[in-house]
């Protein structure tokens, strides 16, 4: 006779605010707004946080998650945690984001290394990482828009690049001095 006295945990996923309006996240600027509206920005100057935005194929936001909270200069992030949420939500596209309490928007070597690691792991599952955003209390930088990392599709971060945002020598966001393309006036 077979022993059937066992049990295991059932996997579940829960949305905390199903009444929230749908938000289409078409570019990096909109992604930064999702983060600013979802977290207490006063805390980002105290310690590093790592977030992920999960989207459907049409770029509607279907989930947001704080992956982990670290210390003043680093945060440990598990690739599996990010991808597990994407799978459970049925997300085809994700945006990674974390903050630098120092206010410096330049990505570290670890930031670039981890981005490459998660992009490769996600691609095996058919999930696209569209960008990795570095946030400070008042500013942000797109790793794709600044070409710190080449994502499969850079069209997501092109809006950021077109706005002429640049990082100054102190690692802070500043408007670029390059001229914007002149608009074509109707003749």
By CATH, the superfamily comes out as Cytidine Deaminase, domain 2
Q: How many structural domains?
A: 1
Q: Do you know the CATH topology? A: Cytidine Deaminase, domain 2
- Please tell me what the overall shape is: globular
> What's the overall average pLDDT, rounded?
80
Helix content: 10-25%
Strands, count? 7
CATH architecture: 3-Layer(aba) Sandwich
Explain this structure to me?
The protein has one domain: Cytidine Deaminase, domain 2 (3-Layer(aba) Sandwich). 25% of the residues lie in helices and 21% in strands. It has a 5-stranded mixed beta sheet with strand order 2-1-3-4-5, with helices on both faces. A two-stranded antiparallel sheet has the order 6-7.
Label this structure with key terms.
single chain; 187 residues; Cytidine Deaminase, domain 2; two-stranded antiparallel sheet; 4 helices; 25% helix; 21% strand; disordered C terminus
Short description:
With 187 residues, this protein is an alpha+beta fold.
Furnish the topology, listing elements before pairings.
Layout lengths: L27 H11 L10 E7 L5 E9 L9 H11 L3 E7 L9 H16 L3 E8 L4 E3 L12 H8 L2 E3 L5 E3 L12
Parallel strand pairs: 3-4
Antiparallel strand pairs: 1-2, 1-3, 4-5, 6-7
């Amino acid at each position: 006779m077979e022993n059937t006295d066992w049990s295991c945990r059932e996997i579940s996923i829960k949305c905390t605010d199903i009444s929230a309006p749908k938000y289409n996240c078409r570019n990096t600027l909109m992604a930064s707004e999702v983060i600013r509206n979802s977290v207490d920005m006063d805390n980002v100057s105290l310690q590093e946080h790592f977030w992920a935005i999960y989207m459907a194929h049409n770029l509607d936001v279907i989930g947001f998650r704080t992956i982990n909270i670290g210390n003043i200069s680093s945060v440990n992030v598990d690739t599996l945690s990010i991808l597990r949420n994407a799978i459970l939500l049925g997300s085809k596209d994700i945006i990674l984001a974390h903050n630098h309490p120092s206010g410096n928007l330049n990505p570290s070597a670890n930031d670039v290394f981890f981005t490459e690691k998660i992009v490769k792991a996600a691609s095996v599952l058919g999930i696209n990482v569209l960008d990795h955003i570095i946030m400070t209390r008042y500013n942000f930088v797109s790793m794709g828009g600044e070409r710190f990392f080449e994502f499969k599709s850079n069209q997501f971060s092109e809006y950021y690049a077109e706005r002429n945002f640049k990082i100054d020598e102190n690692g802070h966001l500043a408007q670029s001095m390059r001229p914007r393309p002149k608009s074509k006036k109707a003749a």
